[in-house]
């Protein structure tokens, strides 16, 4: 079946077998290997991507179900070689060891911060409860998300400040 | 692992979905959120020859009031019911239950209709729908009918739906007066199915006495169960220490738990009693503020 999917802003057209899972489509067809596969039971969240803005486990969505929709993978986070604030925070807070769960953690955190820019610790733990990490024990992951939330809020404030200082666009 | 190969159909209307279900019969399976069906297909526990994906059927989404009931479309996702501020006043049990189902990522895909038809005895929606006295609206080419939730679950993973019947919505009676609800659940780890769970929905009349009592029991029998004795004990009574304690003790009498690695039957029964007492106490506190009862 022919599908058209926008992945990280780029439109792809592919012929896929209906049984192809979105995670495999991303990894094998599009070579976007940042999305990981860790289980067969929809438990680990290593495969988390955003489908039309919502975080989902891409091992439990068919690629054909993404037809006409938009997907964001971990490869979308950095901008022109600059790490996304979440990626920097994971690095600075030692929120990863083997890194296997990290793409999923980043995408689940990204979705969480889109909906709730200043989550409490409890909200972060709840938001990431579908993502399993076998290495870190979660403490540093939670710290990283908190730190990224602060950085992103500061950036938004700075941007707003610049707009205010430069006057309105119609001046 | 990959699922088996199958033929994929993506109808865009209820009529088309039902026509495909009739055409393929036993070979066809409806794909809703896929959060139970696809994991089973990956493990090859299920291997349907045809998948009928109803994600493109817009008529099955969202909710509206119809003749004094709230009609929730079968394809409404768990997360939508969890976050709807609009439903919280009249149907507080919806968001209180939804936030216990699996994890946020699964809740973004899984649907209320899929959860009910899957008929897991530990289905949190199944349990909450018992407490809310829901009816499931189903359609086939021949007819449309509403199945009371007490007749919906037949056995573990089995409902009273016929092969070509599509669940299109659930109907919940709109409460007349103030209501409060709690969902209590013990799980082994975050996002897991219940070891035991309890849904409690209470409505009060103008006299401050209980006029609506719904109590669903989760994971303590082959299907979600109803605590009929406890419900009957509460109707027409005020919520006091005595009535709460008496009703809580009756809840385990309608449960049928088994001993397993997660706990003994005795433990699960006692858990239900404790849950009932906590839930009713919290509900009483909440409702005392809303209606002037002593
Ligand atoms: C790791 C994990 C943890 C989970 N934890 C919980 C939990 O704690 N509590 C809980 O309640 N659930 C839990 N679930 C199940 C999850 O909530 C599912 O979303 C839900 O049970 C199935 O709904 P679905 O929409 O994904 O249905 P699907 O998986 O698409 O379908 C399930 C079944 O119902 C049939 N079906 C679906 N919709 C219809 C319809 N409209 N008409 C007729 N037949 C239909 C399908 O053919 C299939 O047989 C968990 C799942 C996973 C993977
Ligand atoms: S690989 Fe998708 S949840 Fe584990
Ligand atoms: S860093 Fe190794 S699994 Fe999370």
TrEMBL record, chain A:
Pfam families documented for this protein: Fer2 (PF00111), Fer2_2 (PF01799)
GO molecular function: 2 iron, 2 sulfur cluster binding; metal ion binding; oxidoreductase activity
Keywords (A to Z) from UniProt: 2Fe-2S, Iron, Iron-sulfur, Metal-binding, Oxidoreductase
Pathway connected to this protein: Alkaloid degradation; nicotine degradation
Domain 2Fe-2S ferredoxin-type positions: 1-77
InterPro entries: 2Fe-2S-bd, 2Fe-2S-bd_dom_sf, 2Fe-2S_ferredoxin-like_sf, 2Fe-2S_ferredoxin-type, Beta-grasp_dom_sf, Diverse_Oxidoreductases
Record-linked SUPFAM superfamilies: 2Fe-2S ferredoxin-like (SSF54292), CO dehydrogenase ISP C-domain like (SSF47741)
PANTHER family: OXIDOREDUCTASE WITH IRON-SULFUR SUBUNIT
Name recorded for this polypeptide: Carbon monoxide dehydrogenase
Organism per entry: Kyrpidia spormannii
Lineage: Bacteria, Bacillati, Bacillota, Bacilli, Bacillales
From TrEMBL, chain B:
Pfam (any one): CO_deh_flav_C
FAD-binding PCMH-type domain span: 1-177
PROSITE patterns with a match to the protein in the record: FAD_PCMH
Swiss-Prot/TrEMBL keywords: FAD, Flavoprotein, Oxidoreductase
Domain of life according to the entry: Bacteria
An example Gene Ontology molecular-function term: FAD binding
UniProt entry tagged with the keyword Flavoprotein: yes
Keyword Translocase set for record: no
Protein name: Carbon monoxide dehydrogenase
Organism of derivation: Kyrpidia spormannii
